[in-house]
User: Fold this.
Amino acid sequence: MKRLIFTFLITLFATNMNAQSIFGKWENRDETTNEVDSVIEVYEKNGKAYAKIIEIMDENRQDALCDKCSGKRKNEPILGMNILSGLKKDGSEWSGGKILDPKNGKEYKCYIKLEEKNKLKIRGYIGFSLLGRTAYWYRKDS
Assistant:
């Protein structure tokens, strides 16, 4: 009986910890229609946060290339592309990295923060964070 209770508590704790993490799969929603347009996976590598597009909902955009990107990303497939790189944990935020907007090919400084257990705030900006744009990603149900 003690083993069963212990297993239950460990499972509950692990589930709760995962729900409080920025890591996992997130839905990016269209700002005007609020429909999911892509799924992004945020993952950790060497203590930093990264994210890549793992699903594009529009069947006509499955093979889309980043034609507005520059450098090594120019004309690379958007599906599978890393769009978030090098963020370090700083208190409740992850900052110091960059985010790519594949729609316009531009890269911005950014920070991300878990607003609620299923809502991630992404702030992209030029210069300092007052000059930028905020988007929200919503945790994808597994």
